[in-house]
Design goal:
By secondary structure, this protein is an all-alpha fold. It has one domain. Helix content is about 90%, strand content about 0%. Helix 3 packs antiparallel against helix 4. The longest helix has about 110 residues. Pfam families: Bap31, Bap31_Bap29_C. It is a multi-pass membrane protein. This is Endoplasmic reticulum transmembrane protein.
Amino acid sequence: MTVYYTLTFMLLASEMVTFCILVAPLPYSIRKRFFHFLSESPIIAKIAYALKITFIFVAILFVDALQRMWRVTAEADIARTGGGAVGVQSETNFAARKFYSQRNTYLTGFCLFLSLVLTRSFYIILDLIHTQEEYAKLKQEIAKSSRTQIASEDQVKQITDLKKKLAEAEAKTRDYDILKKQAAQNQAEYDRLATEFNEKTGAVSNKRKD
């Protein structure tokens, strides 16, 4: 296998390892930090840019391998359907060339396909993490608003109790004023009756004469 197909195989193996890491059942906190690092790190951004250029060359290799596979298959079919006899060595040579062309086609094709799967899986998981973060924030806001509502309800209840107590105090004050007024009226009536009684009995006049 040539150097560029060896590098393509290494790239495919690294993609398989990366895919296993992405879909691994990691804890939420570790997954969150890991994906934030991948999406925000400038070093990872440069590596991703270099990989995009690499995948362009892999796509060129895929097209070349596909053309070679079609050409070898056509030559093998022509050799079989031709009138001349095909030797064992020639048939083995065609089979080997066909195998290598198919291998290179599958290698580059799976490398490109897995790159698309990795990219899509990464962004799906990243969107899921962002959605979970927004859900957690919304849940906290709802909890705060519910606590504020409960506190406001308690304040309303306290204000209502204070109003009731104030109304009761005002009622008692009015009752006290009424009793005080009645006591003053009774005292005035008592003084009037006492004065009349003293005048009739002459007690007041004798005191004045003395």
